[in-house]
Specification:
The complex is a heterodimer. Chain A is mainly alpha-helical. Chain A has a domain of 167 residues: MetI-like fold (Orthogonal Bundle), CATH 1.10.3720. In chain A, 75% of the residues lie in helices and 0% in strands. In chain A, helix 4 packs antiparallel against helix 11, helix 5 crosses helix 8 and helix 11 crosses helix 15. In chain A, 41% of the residues are buried. The model of chain A has no long low-confidence stretch (mean pLDDT 91). By secondary structure, chain B is an all-alpha fold. Chain B has two domains: 29 residues; 247 residues, MetI-like (MetI-like fold, Orthogonal Bundle). Chain B is 74% helix and 1% strand. In chain B, helix 3 crosses helix 8, helix 3 packs antiparallel against helix 10 and helix 10 packs antiparallel against helix 13. The two termini of chain B are 44 Å apart. The C terminus of chain B is likely disordered. Classes of the chains: A mainly alpha, B mainly alpha.
Chain lengths: 275, 293
């Protein structure tokens, strides 16, 4: 485009500096607070840099509740959901994309209908169901409602449809079993879609607060976001250095993955929503 | 031979789709039907449920629920308008290659994928009336202190601002993708005609982005409609009921008052609204297809 005037450029630059400060500033403040001691947290005007940095805040936050338990639960929940979603989505997507059978399209429409049922519609009836079955406060209550993903089934079906039928037929003629065809042949070829969907699923369920909050009332199955949210409720007054340190337990892994796989994550979130 | 293979394929198809379909039925479709069923009962889960007809729906027809709807509309409307305007502005500013632009995009997008719990806690602390950084900043430039979360007139708009801060990266990224799809020839032709920057935006960028805008309006509306975490952590629906938005209302009816019939009636209405929005999205998408072909 043509050359903008120096005024426009200066204003643009100023705007960007403001945006950067507003976006990045709070994060830096979070880190700074997490390294302060109590007197400097409640100091006004606030000090911007913690001196000396109190790394033991992280240990204190970790010990202020069963955080190892929360962490393990979070990992188990996120991983179990991902494995089940991929397993169900890949096998169903193969049938939808590569096999002919009566009622196939109707089945697919039913799956797509599930796309418009958000968790906020499902939590009350599923809570009632799980409480009848004695499943509240179990991993099953956390994982089962998300074991199948309509979005995942849809995206992986699209990716499988891009792959030529000839390749599948050749493998079947060679005597490859159905699971070999799906997981050894098609899945590697659909890798970009699978990676994008997996990142989307992992980030979503790692952060998820709503579902574990509703389905758990004991520490044995609580996850990190719920545990971190309770740091404030249990706190006596302004323990903000501890709360901010605790928040980092949820935030840091996501930001670390983002730093490594930024391009993939941005693609995952735009791609999964634009389809 | 061919028919034997066809028959085998059919069986295989049912075997592969069956388990998924059963689970979808159990955790997606059954809940919708069961909510409709429970919505005509009075039930606290402890005592036997009692059939009450449409009484739960009549009970929702109240000023209390009206306020919930107004709060939800204000929250969603505020989030959608601000996120769209700022997202578009940022996309226009950052629509060029370069390390700074990429780094800033990454920073803005990162808060979109960070936990709501962490963001909500961070902003309670930022807005702390005594020691918060924002409080300090306002005092530094001589502005009066704002009771961000304690004032019924302000709290909902505070939640709107924090939500926009967190989710801005999404419309920005989608708009950037939209901008990059506009052919450069259009701008070159316009430059030859002597079009100013504003006119280029008004007559090329904005109309060509309209499918993107339409898509974002619907997706952001649906997403903000489902807002819950930020209310649960930052305000608990208060002060008074000024930040009571829809999903938090359902949660409270179900898990604090154990009025599962009334909560289910609210769920049914909520699902109806989501269906309407989805229909709007579908129509918008059809329009987009027509537009590009």
């Amino acid at each position: 485009m043509s050359h903008p005037s120096p005024w426009v450029r200066a204003l643009t630059l100023l705007g960007l500096v403001v945006v950067a400060a507003v976006e990045v500033g709070p994060y830096l403040w979070m880190v700074a607070t997490s390294l302060k001691d109590l007197p400097s947290v409640t100091q006004f005007p606030p000090s911007l840099i913690p001196r000396p940095p109190r790394w033991d805040n992280y240990a204190k936050a970790w010990q202020s509740g069963p955080f190892l338990r929360y962490f393990v639960n979070n990992v188990v929940q996120t991983a179990a959901i991902l494995v089940l979603q991929l397993g169900f989505a890949c096998t169903a997507a193969y049938a939808f994309a590569k096999l002919r059978f009566r009622g196939r399209d109707l089945c697919f429409v039913i799956v797509m209908a599930c796309l418009i049922v958000p968790p906020q519609v499902r939590f009350v009836p599923l809570y009632i169901l799980f409480s009848h079955l004695g499943l509240v406060n179990t991993y099953a209550a956390l994982v089962l409602p998300y074991a199948v993903s309509a979005l995942g089934t849809f995206l992986i079906r699209e990716a499988f449809m891009q792959i030529s039928d000839d390749i599948v037929d050749a493998a079947r003629v060679d005597g490859a079993g159905v699971f070999t065809v799906i997981f050894r042949l098609l899945v590697p070829m659909a890798r970009p879609t699978i990676v994008a969907f997996s990142l989307f699923s992992v980030v979503y369920h790692w952060n998820d607060f709503f579902w574990p909050l509703v389905m758990t009332t004991t520490d044995a199955v609580r996850t990190l976001p719920v545990g971190v949210s309770m740091l404030r409720e249990e706190g006596t007054g302004a323990r903000w250095h501890i709360i901010m340190a605790g928040s980092m337990f949820v935030v840091a892994p996501v930001l670390a993955v983002f730093a490594v796989a930024q391009r993939h994550i941005v693609r995952a979130f735009t791609f999964t929503s634009l389809k | 031979m061919a028919s034997r293979r066809a028959r085998r394929d059919a069986w295989l198809g049912y075997a592969l789709v069956g388990p998924s379909l059963a689970l979808f039925g159990l955790v997606y479709l059954y809940p919708v039907a069961y909510s409709a069923y429970v919505s005509v009962f009075q039930w606290d889960l402890m005592t036997p449920k009692r059939y009450v007809g449409l009484a739960n729906y009549r009970e929702l027809w109240s000023p209390e629920f009206g306020e919930v709807l107004v709060n939800t509309a204000c929250y969603s409307g505020g989030v959608v308008l601000l996120a769209l305007a700022l997202g578009l502005g940022l996309a226009l500013l950052l629509n060029h290659r370069g390390a700074w632009s990429a780094a800033l995009q990454a920073c803005i997008f990162s808060s979109y994928i960070v936990s709501w719990v962490a963001v909500s806690l961070l902003w309670i602390w930022m807005l702390d009336p005594q020691y918060g950084l924002v409080t300090y900043g306002l005092r530094l430039v001589g502005l009066p202190a704002v009771n961000w979360l304690g004032s019924p007139a302000v709290a909902l708009w505070t939640l709107v601002l924090v939500t926009v801060w967190k989710t801005l990266g999404y419309p920005m990224i989608i708009y950037l993708a939209g901008l990059q799809a506009i052919p450069g020839d259009f701008y070159e032709a316009a430059a030859l005609d002597g079009a100013t920057g504003w006119n280029r935006f008004r007559f090329i960028t904005w109309p060509l982005l309209s499918p993107t805008t339409l898509f974002l309006v619907v997706t952001l509306t649906i997403a903000s409609f489902q807002g819950f975490d930020i209310v649960k952590i930052m305000t608990g629906g208060g002060p008074i009921t000024s930040t009571m938005i829809y999903v938090y209302y359902i949660y409270e009816q179900a898990f604090q008052y154990f009025r599962l019939g009334k909560a289910s009636a609210a769920v049914v209405i909520f699902f109806g609204l989501i269906l309407l929005l989805t229909l709007a999205q579908w129509l918008a998408f059809r329009k987009r297809v027509q537009y590009t072909t």
